[in-house]
Amino acid sequence: MSLDFVLVRSHGQPRVLSEIKEDAAFKRNDYTDLAERLFGPVPWTGGTAIAVRDEMSFELTPHDSSLSVTARGPGDTVAFMDNIAALAVKEGVVTIDVQGSEIMLPFNE
């Protein structure tokens, strides 16, 4: 099974999707750097990278307006992504759970 997430740099601290005010100055290179800060150094091939953590893999694809993350594996990908969301929010980045169509708010929020 795979789970999909989108990370977007936003002004303010939105709690729902309609409150996201995208930071248009944050581009593909910024999202690539963000991916490496959140997931560690990863090899990039054709604009995509695979980060492997424990028994999970995370396909990372930076775009000009977001970072797409597809999580796979038998590990607790939701808990791992909650940790990523907690780190991302410190950088003004919101994590969107694509399946649930909602912002992932870290447990400590």
Describe the structure.
- The chain has helices at residues 28-39, 77-89; strands at residues 2-9, 44-45, 48-53, 56-62, 67-72, 93-97, 102-103.
- With 109 residues, the protein is an alpha+beta fold.
- Strand 4 (56-62) and strand 5 (67-72) form a beta hairpin.
- The longest helix is centred in the C-terminal third of the chain and has 13 residues, at 77-89.
- The radius of gyration is 13 Å and the shape is globular.
- The termini are far apart.
Give the overall average pLDDT: 93
Largest beta-sheet details? 7 strands, antiparallel
Give the radius of gyration.
13 Å
Shape: globular
Order of the strands making up the biggest sheet: 2-3-4-5-1-6-7
Number of helices: 2
User: Could you spell the SSE succession in H and E letters?
Assistant: EHEEEEHEE
Based on secondary structure, the structural category is alpha+beta
Our estimate of the beta-strand percent is 25-35%
Query: Unreliable runs, pLDDT <50, ≥5 residues?
Result: none
> What is the straight-line distance between the termini?
27 Å
**Helix fraction by DSSP (H/I, runs of at least 4):** 10-25%
Counting DSSP E segments of at least 2 residues, the number of strands comes to: 7
Quick gist of this model?
The protein has helices at 28-39, 77-89; strands at residues 2-9, 44-45, 48-53, 56-62, 67-72, 93-97, 102-103. The chain is α+β, with helices and mostly antiparallel strands and 109 residues long. The chain has a seven-stranded antiparallel beta sheet, with helices on one face.
Strands, helices and their partners?
Elements: E1 2-9, H1 28-39, E2 44-45, E3 48-53, E4 56-62, E5 67-72, H2 77-89, E6 93-97, E7 102-103
